[in-house]
From TrEMBL:
High-level lineage: Eukaryota, Viridiplantae, Streptophyta, Embryophyta, Tracheophyta
ANK repeat extents: 147-179, 179-211
Keywords: ANK repeat, TPR repeat
Coiled-coil intervals, chain numbering: none
Domain of life: Eukaryota
Cross-referenced PANTHER family: ANKYRIN REPEAT FAMILY PROTEIN (PTHR46224), PTHR46224:SF18
Signal peptide: none
Gene3D superfamilies given in the database record: Ankyrin repeat-containing domain (1.25.40.20), Tetratricopeptide repeat domain (1.25.40.10)
InterPro entries documented for this protein: Ankyrin_rpt, Ankyrin_rpt-contain_sf, Cul2-RING_E3_ligase_SR, TPR-like_helical_dom_sf, TPR_rpt
Protein name listed in UniProt: Uncharacterized protein
SUPFAM superfamilies given in the database record: Ankyrin repeat, TPR-like
Length: 370
């Protein structure tokens, strides 16, 4: 349950609660009016017959029991100031009283106390608890308290996995922002691995920065090695998935290239480039596809990109020379083949290509001279 006295985080004040308090809500202090005290006690005990009788007494024959019970609030307990009978019934798992208040009296299920906290925050989250009942009857899982904290922040602060799972299952937004960040920030700052895992499984933003702090920074401040490892792992997963996808596309492209299906191979290499735009081999292989399709201009563009990425790779020079040969720039081709041969003097393919380029250049010049 909630307590305004809390420890401070390294980055911002903690939420107004502690785990022990949210799990065990003490009865409110006796109020000045004994009748009101009895109403609250009956709600706490889930004594529905007594609770109904007391509500009728409280109504004093006006025929407006809803108004009478909604106006009834804790006033003499600083921590629980503004608590309604529904807050107390929800916190004590008094399901019969909750049903009576919500379904018969049509009490507002989102009544707030002085701190802006609804009954749902204090409800019990185990199977058959009042939390699920309130959510099924219109309780708002997105409602923030006066400090801007949402229910999911409280659940993350406490590491209550059942509470987090239920809120998310009922449609709670996974990344609401408060002064302390998102629920993932809060769970990381508390070292709650299980809570973090659930939030991440529901696509919580692990890179979200709030007030200059990311969840990973919060986990480091908490000295939680387990939480740090989890965040590092999820940050690496998208990169690994991209690498795997790119590798699969490259493999399919290589098969198509061997089968001389150059159009398909070029498309596959293009898709792989979107995942891995810095792979010089992809540009070399796609350049080869363009060469075989007779597109010297595109072949040269890819070959030039490949050479820029890996200026000392002989094959990049070879690809440039081949593209220039297709474009009938024999002088340029000879220069590129010569560059490649300087890098790898024993490459017979480049040596043969250079010989052919120089022969073509000589023939071209002879033709022009006539």
């Amino acid at each position: 349950m909630i307590d305004p006295t809390v420890s401070a985080s390294a980055h911002s004040p903690s939420l107004t609660l502690t785990p022990a308090q949210i799990l065990t809500l003490p009865p409110p202090a006796p109020v000045r009016d004994p009748l009101l005290d009895m109403v609250f006690q009956a709600a706490s005990d889930d004594n529905l017959p007594r609770f109904k009788a007391l509500v009728m007494m409280l109504d004093t024959g006006r025929g407006r029991p809803k108004e009478a019970i909604e106006e009834l609030r804790v006033e003499d307990d600083a921590k629980l100031q503004g608590f309604s009978a529904l807050h107390i019934a929800a916190s004590r798992c008094s399901l019969e009283v909750c049903r009576y208040l919500v379904e018969e009296l049509l009490i507002d299920v989102d009544l707030v106390d002085k701190e802006g906290r609804t009954p749902l925050l204090f409800a019990k989250y185990h199977n058959g608890g009042t939390a699920e009942y309130l959510l099924d009857h219109g309780a708002n899982p997105h409602k923030a308290n006066n400090d801007g904290a949402f229910l999911l922040h409280y659940a993350a602060e406490l590491g209550i996995c059942e509470m987090i799972e239920l809120l998310l299952a009922k449609g709670a937004y996974v990344d609401p922002v408060s002064a302390r960040g998102t629920p993932l920030h809060v769970a990381a700052g508390g070292g709650h691995y299980g809570a973090m895992k659930i939030l991440l499984d529901h696509n919580a933003d692990y890179n979200k920065m709030v007030n200059g702090v990311t969840p990973l920074m919060a986990a480091r401040d908490a000295n939680s090695t387990e939480c740090i490892k989890l965040l590092v792992k999820v940050q690496e997963e998208p990169m690994l998935k991209r690498e795997i996808a790119a590798s699969e596309l490259i493999s399919l492209g290589s098969i198509s290239l061997k089968e001389k299906d150059y159009v398909v191979a070029a498309k596959l290499y293009s898709q792989a480039m979107q995942l891995d735009p810095d792979d010089a081999v992809l540009f070399s292989d796609r350049s080869l596809c363009w060469l075989n399709m007779g597109n010297g201009r595109k072949a040269l563009l890819d070959a030039n990109k490949c050479r820029k990425m890996r200026p000392h790779w002989p094959k990049a020079c070879h690809r440039q020379g081949e593209a220039l040969m297709l474009l009938k720039d024999y002088e340029g081709a000879s220069e590129r083949f010569l560059d490649g041969l300087k890098l790898d003097p024993v490459d017979t393919d480049i040596e043969d290509a250079l010989r052919e380029a120089m022969k073509s250049l000589k023939t071209s010049r002879s033709t022009k001279a006539k």
